[in-house]
Task: inverse folding
């Protein structure tokens, strides 16, 4: 049986992110570039999800990294290269 040592931290972070339901303009002020789902799939290939994180590969140069996301409205933000 695999144990996810990050589960409690991820659950707490997911709860914090989704409690605000920030709009795009707010998120851009706080995090910089923000993507909706369509924009995300145009710029990145999604490798996997583990809320509130998504592992992506940038299509333009193959750089892998992570983004965070909020559920509603669904926005992705905080790109961090691996």
Result:
């Amino acid at each position: 049986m695999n144990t996810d040592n990050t589960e409690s931290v991820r659950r707490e972070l997911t709860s914090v992110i989704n409690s605000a339901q920030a709009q795009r303009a707010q998120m851009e002020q706080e995090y910089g570039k923000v993507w909706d789902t369509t924009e995300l799939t145009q710029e990145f290939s999604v490798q996997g999800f583990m809320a509130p994180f998504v592992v992506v590969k940038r299509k333009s140069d193959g750089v892998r990294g992570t983004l965070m996301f909020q559920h509603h409205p669904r926005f992705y933000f905080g790109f961090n290269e691996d």
